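In this section we walk through a basic example: taking a raw amino acid sequence and producing a predicted 3D structure, encoded as discrete structure tokens. The instruction is simple. Fold the sequence below.
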Amino acid sequence: MEQETMLKEIPQAFKLHSQHIDTKFEHIDQRFEKMDERLEQVDSKMDNMRIELEARMDQGFEHLGKKIDGVRADLTETQNTADFLLDKTAQHEKKLRYFSEPQSSFPNDLIPSFELSSAALSQYWSKGSIIFAISGIQRKRAM
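The resulting token sequence is shown next.
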């Protein structure tokens, strides 16, 4: 009889033990589900942060590109000014060489030539400026 009771209690003990293990597994499953939710939240936050960072970087690069374009325009303007000044310096040096050497006439490439259209002349005239329209004047150097 004792053996029969023990044989009946053994399946009951296994059943209780399996229920206890099932309860633990359910508890572990719940913890894993909570961890999955947290990981999804972290993943979502990371995606949002990445998107915000990309937007800020794009905005920063656009701003930097505009600055570079401005610097490029300033540099181009400076180069044009330098070229103009170099040309004028070369013209003045030519004139100085001409005036330092005895010659009988003023060379044609050193003669200033100004041509203003009537519209430009009236524009300057309306602003109160005094404009002289000089076209093809040749001067001879007095000896």
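Looking at the output, two observations stand out. The radius of gyration is 47 Å. The chain has two domains: 2-101, 105-143. In the next section we compare this with other chains.
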